[in-house]
Structures are given as C-alpha cells and as structure tokens.
Design a protein that fits this description.
The structure is a homodimer. Chain A is built from 12 helices and 20 strands. By secondary structure, chain A is of the alpha/beta class. Chain A folds into 3 domains: 51 residues, EGF-like, alliinase (Laminin, Ribbon); 197 residues, Type I PLP-dependent aspartate aminotransferase-like (Major domain) (Aspartate Aminotransferase, domain 2, 3-Layer(aba) Sandwich), CATH 3.40.640; 119 residues, Alpha-Beta Complex (Aspartate Aminotransferase, domain 1). In chain A, strand 8, helix 6 and strand 9 form a beta-alpha-beta unit. In chain A, helix 5 packs across helix 6. The termini of chain A are far apart. Chains A and B meet through helix 1, helix 2, helix 3, strand 6 and helix 4 of A and helix 1, helix 2, helix 3, strand 6 and helix 4 of B. Strand 6 of chain A pairs antiparallel with strand 6 of chain B.
C-alpha cells in the first residue's frame, strides 16, 4: 500500500455521496445508483425485474422469469464483498488528454494486468502477442474482420457455425463494405472448394448458446479464424489447455460481469493485423474511454489479488450450482432436454470438472412444440428463440447469468412447467386406461 | 445536498489513494495518475512535454513547442479549482448491466443535463429533438453518415469545404461501404447539377482550423448536412443565435476538456435518422461505457451549477488572452499572417465579442515558404500542416488549447521566430544600402 490513512479533503464529498446512495434501501429487491433518475433530490430505487413501487416492495404474482438478456449480474455479490478494494475515485482533472503517456490509446498497467490474469486462469497464451482494447468485445469483432479482409477482392465471406451469436451477422452486414459479407453457416462453404476468395470464420469456444468447446469447421490457406473466447474462463468451462490462436477476443462482461463498462480486448499474433485493428479503433472512436479503462484496471487488479482464484472460484461454484438445479428439474421431463456438456479435465482446477455453462440451450421435444420459446412464454419464462441463433425455433436459450432473484424465479417457473407436464401425462394416461 | 457528513467505510481506501496520488509532486511540470505506470508500488510522474526526470524537474533547452495535437488541457485548471464537486466515486458493483433502467443505452440524467447546458449557453435548440450518445463525437460522425445514406443508390457523396478536419475523409473511407464515399471539397459538386445521388456535406461551424462560422456550400433537395458543432461554445466563438439544424454534433472534449472520456452527443430532429443512428451505435458497440456517461454527468452537473457561466467565462477569458498575445506578436511580422475573425454580437454574452479561436491558422507569406510547417519546425514549433486539412502546405495550424506550459513555450518560440525575421530584414537592408 503506497497511501497512508489520512483525513480526506476534495474526495470526501464524492465518497459520502456514493456511500449514502449505496445505503438507500430498496427492500433488497433493487438498487439506487449515483447516476439514477433523481426525484426530490435523491436518486430513486431501480427495482429488479418484476419488483415495483418506490422501495421495490411490490411483487405482482404473475410476473414472468425474464432470462432472455445476458446481463451477467450473478457476479454482483462478488463485487459487493470486495467493496473497498473495487471502488475507485476519479478526480475532475483525471486524464483529459486523448492519449496515454506512450502516445497510444492503451493503458500500460491495464495491459499488464490482463496478461497476468490470463496466466492465472491458464486460459490464453499472451507471450509474444499484441493486445488491443475495444468498446466491448463487440467493437473488436468488426475490427478483426476489417483487419483480416482489407486486401480481399472479391469480398471475403464471413461465416459461423449454426447456432451462432446473432451479432456476427447483423454487425457484419451493418457496414455493407466492399471487403466482406456475411455468408451464414460455416458448413455452406465446406464443399465449395471453387470459392477463390478469403473466408473468415467466427469460432466461438465455448459456444454461445450451448457452452461446448469448438474447433473451426473450415480449414485451408484462404481461411482465417476469429476466436471469440468471451466464455473461455473457469467460470463457464473446463480449460483443457491455454488458447494459443492468432486472434482471440475476450470481454470484461463475461470475465468480471461489468457489461455496462463496454470493455473488451483482443490478443493478436500478427503485427499487421494488430496495426490494422488499431487503425480501425482509432478512426472509429479515437480510442476508448479512459474512464472505462480505469474502471477495468481497478476491477481486474482485484481479480488478480492474492492467488487470483477468488473470482473464478465464486463464479464457477455459482454457475455449477445453478446448472445442477436446472438439470435436475429438466431430467424429470420427457418434453424438454438440455444440451450435453461432457465432464472434462481442467488444467486450471487440475481435475475433471462438471459443467457450469452460461446458458441452458433447451430443446422442445414434443412434435407439436415447434416454437419452443412460445411454449416457455406461456409458462412465464422469457428465453431467446433458436431462430435468433439461426437455429430452429424448436430451441430456446435461457440465461443462467442473471441476478439471483431472476434465477430463483426461473427455477420456480421451470418446476411449474415440468410438474404440469407430469400432471398432463398422468391425466392422459388415466383417460387411456 | 442529499447526503450527510459521515464517517466513510468502503470508499475510504479509494479516496485516500486518489488524494495521495494527486499530491505527488512533479515539480509543477507533470502529474501522477492512479492508473499511471507503477514503479516501487507508486505511480510515477508523467511530465508535461519537454520536461523530464523522475520528478519532471529537467528541461532540455532546445525542446520544441508541440502544438500539433488538440488536447484541450487549457481547461485543466478549472477542474482543479472544482476538485470537490467534480470528483466521483464508482463502486465495484456500479451499473454492471448492459442497459439503463429504461432499457436504452442512454442515461436519462445525462441527457437532461446536456439539454440544460445548451439552454444556458444559448448555443442550440434541443426542444423537440432527440439526443444520441457516442464514443466521442468521432463515432457520431460516421453514425450520422450511415443514417443519412442507407437508402441511397448510387452511393451518397460525402463532402466538406477545404480546409477540413482530416477525419471526415479517413473515417468515411475506412468502411468502404456501398452506401457512401468521400468526394472531397464541397465546391467540386457545386456545378454538377447532373449528379443524381444524395450528397452529405459536413458543415463545421465554427470551422476547424480557422474558427469562423460557416454555412453549407451546397443546397438542394438531395443535399443533407451534418453540422459539426464541436466548437460552437462561448469558449471559442460568438453565439449569434442558437443552432437549430436537423443534425448537430457536440463533444465533451471541446466543451469541458475531457478528450480522454470519449463522449459526444448528437441532437437529431428526424425520428428515422435518430433510430438509424441508435442502430449503428448498438451494433458497433452495444452502447457506450456507463463509466464515461457517469463521468460526463458528474462534470456537466458542475458546468450547470449556479448560473452555469463559470466554465464559459473561464474558457473564454483564457482563449481570448491567448489569442491577443499571439496576434500581437504576429502583427509585427510581414512573413506570417493569422486568419481574420470578425468581432460579432454574441447572444450569450449579450455584447459584441472579440475572437478567441481554438487554433491559429497561420499563412506563410514569403514566396519561398511553400512548406509552412517546415518553417515552423525549424523554429522549434510543431504545428499541423495545411495538407492535413486538404489545404496548401503554405498554411499551418497551431493549437491554442493545450496546457499553459505548452502555450507559454509557443509564445516564446513565436517571439523568437518573429524577431529573427526582423533581424534578417535589418541585415538584408543594411546589405542593400
């Protein structure tokens, strides 16, 4: 510690404000924030989904479990436990310049901390590679396509194996450039050996939505891969070996839970790809907010503290318990099935490891349940339809990353759904005999 | 004030750290930051340009005045005066979600504060218009082109009047889309009435580099304008009337000086243009960092405090004094001339107002001085060459926005340059007679 216990001067007001707002009671069903909507000079409670009223004490009985979105709030309790070490004070004059002292858009200390965390998690080799920051991993996905395709005529074809994250498609098509276009499922190009142009494959491993580790579908001299490694952390998966690909993308939101900070990074082998990605970030945004970099640094220093295992332990236990609970209920069902995730040896834990995926990828098995998300909606569970992943609507994705209240609600609703199935079966059998 | 004087708990550590780091002495020629490069457990001094040594006490005698970049550090002293009100404490669990409570990417309170500040400055009409946030005004420039051009076949032509900000060109060409392309100077299209496609004109007013107010060059049913209003604040210009255009872009960096926060906003009349810009921001980045929005809110609340005139007063006085000093020196020169900026009535000040531009746009008048930035470089003044604005290199832009030490150095070097000119003239005349 390089600071000494002291009487505060200019930071006292902001610290008092932060603590006062944090102590606003929202009945345990919501939270007040310093930048929240102000009524009568005070920020109001922002209630968790379903809860309402000025103090979040109201709960409508028929409220659905909303597990459509991805907000990784299951990690919020970790950060509340780490309140002192994870807080940060930003002065009014903090880093007003466009640049860091090395004239780049990249914080040196943050880059160092990221390399350290990958070494702790044993999930990626960063030695001899460059690191680039982006506004979320989101921005880096496109920066990577740009960097890999700029010399291409005809336009490079961008593919991903179904089911895939819908942003790959919508973002790639947003810019409608002359250099690349979205082609759809990876396998559509597998047999087209006559396609002369370059191919860029998004390889999401672990996969969103199903949590399984994946390899590229396409290979060859004109195929380049962007490894979306957002979920390759001990939270979500066994780590069979550190990833060592040429272009890997990670995000703050899936590592630490701070989706709102919009901070991601790419680890890049080739200097030309690195340089082009930096040009992209520079021209699109002139670098990313230093406030977001400071926040990421503060939080990631906490992650790296001590033996650096606390966050991974917390996240893994939490998600493993959630998965166990959910799969136990679905195991009683004949109408719905969950994805299978094999038990795998994990070099981080140094043992075989049970599944703890970020999402349940549910299949509706009954012939008539073509639209699985509708079936769940009727049961008051809001999931993301299979078609959003370019898969069949016989599938639905349920997020297991949300806050505890959302997960508890999900469990309640899934129990009801499965017990209704049993009741219906019992009824139909009693009618049959 | 909705908080009470209290003993701090979890925020104490961060507050102590911030104050300890802020109190690190760098001989008055630099600054230490909490996210600075750490040596022996302490962040090191980051010295202002030219200064060196661990405590920034070294000053090499031949160091040039670097006024090439735009870092608006002239506003730093304002924020140091406002240390207590402009500090912010961010908890480890602050806004981890992707969304604000209204499920958007936009902070309500920040939007309200921005509207209030425009009303105070009398520089823009926001009533009945939408506000969008971006990663700096930088990102919004392209989001605006995207929104204005998506229906266009053939591709829209994007133009700007020379001299123009180089990013208009480089950013527009970065994406190489099928919907727009950069065409160059606005006047190239003035006489091409046969061009059937749409035209998008960047109208920078006040103009970067010369600080004068401008109107569009092109008019007609197929011409749309993006008003880059970054410099339309009482700091830099008279405000003859509030701007009321359909698409105006502003930035935190030019209003408050926080270039590093990468925060800008667009004010948009048409709901379809607004929606498309939001789609762009959503797909490119999934919104902008909440940490940057919180920082902007904290700072802009200080700007709006009291009568809301303190920042404008500080900035205007500072830049007017700088301009006076610089123009006085150049008035003694026959080799160099500055741009002319008329005295204009300002509705904000309610009186006629002397110039206080952000930049000096210097012309080298001697026939042989074709490369003006070279002439200045020899005189140890680093400016931005005219060609960077697609103008002739007979011009050079000198930033007046940097910190006081950089400005003082500029003045010293310009004095030397002009006195050398006098000496040379005296010599040549003595040789002649």
């Amino acid at each position: 510690m390089y600071y000494e216990k002291q009487k505060l001067s200019w930071s006292q007001r902001a610290a008092e404000e932060a603590e006062t707002v944090a102590s606003i009671s929202c009945s345990g069903h919501g939270r007040a924030y310093i930048d929240g909507f102000v009524v009568d000079g005070k920020p109001i409670c922002e209630c968790y989904s379903c809860y309402g009223g000025t103090d979040c004490s109201l709960f409508p009985p028929n409220c659905p479990a909303d597990v459509e979105s991805v907000d990784p709030l299951f990690l919020e309790p970790f950060w509340m436990q780490k309140a002192a070490s994870s807080a940060v004070v930003i002065s009014g004059w903090h880093r007003m310049s466009y640049f860091w002292p090395n004239q780049s858009f990249i914080s040196n200390e943050l880059e160092k901390t990221i390399r350290k965390i990958h070494a702790i998690a044993k999930n990626a080799i960063t030695d001899g590679k460059y690191i680039i920051f982006g506004v979320g991993s989101t921005q880096l996905l496109n920066a990577a396509i740009y960097a890999l395709s700029m010399d291409n005529y005809p336009a490079a074809k961008v593919v991903a194996k179904i089911p895939y994250y819908s942003l790959y498609n919508s973002q790639t098509e947003l810019f409608q450039t002359q250099h690349y276009e979205f082609e759809g499922d990876s396998s559509t190009l597998r047999n087209k050996s006559d396609f002369a142009g370059n191919v860029i494959e998004f390889v999401t491993s672990p996969k969103n939505p199903d949590g399984n580790l994946r390899s590229p579908i396409l290979k060859g001299p004109n195929v380049k891969a962007i490894y979306d490694r957002a979920y390759y952390w001990p939270h979500y998966t066994a780590i069979p070996a550190p990833a060592d690909e040429d272009l890997m993308i990670f995000s703050m939101s899936k590592l630490a839970g701070h989706a709102g900070t919009r901070f991601g990074w790419a680890i890049v082998k080739d200097v030309n790809v690195y340089t082009r990605m930096m040009v992209y970030i520079g021209l699109a945004d002139m670098g990313i907010p230093k406030d977001a970099q400071l926040r990421a640094l503060t939080l990631l220093k906490v992650v790296a503290e001590g033996d650096g295992k606390q966050l991974f332990h917390f996240a893994h236990q939490n998600l493993r318990d959630r998965w166990e609970k959910l799969s136990q209920i679905f195991s009683l069902s004949k109408s719905f099935s969950l994805q299978r995730i094999p038990t795998q040896y994990c070099t981080y834990l140094e043992r075989a490891r049970d599944p703890s995926p970020a999402y349940a990828w549910v299949k509706c098995k009954r012939y008539e349940d073509q639209n699985c998300s509708e079936v769940f909606k009727v049961a008051k569970i809001i999931g993301r339809p299979g078609s959003r992943f370019s898969a069949r609507d016989r599938y639905v994705r349920l997020s297991l990353l949300k806050g505890q209240h959302d997960f508890d609600m999900l469990i309640r609703r899934v129990k009801q759904l499965v017990s209704q199935e049993h009741e219906a079966r019992a009824e139909s059998m009693s009618g049959f005999y």
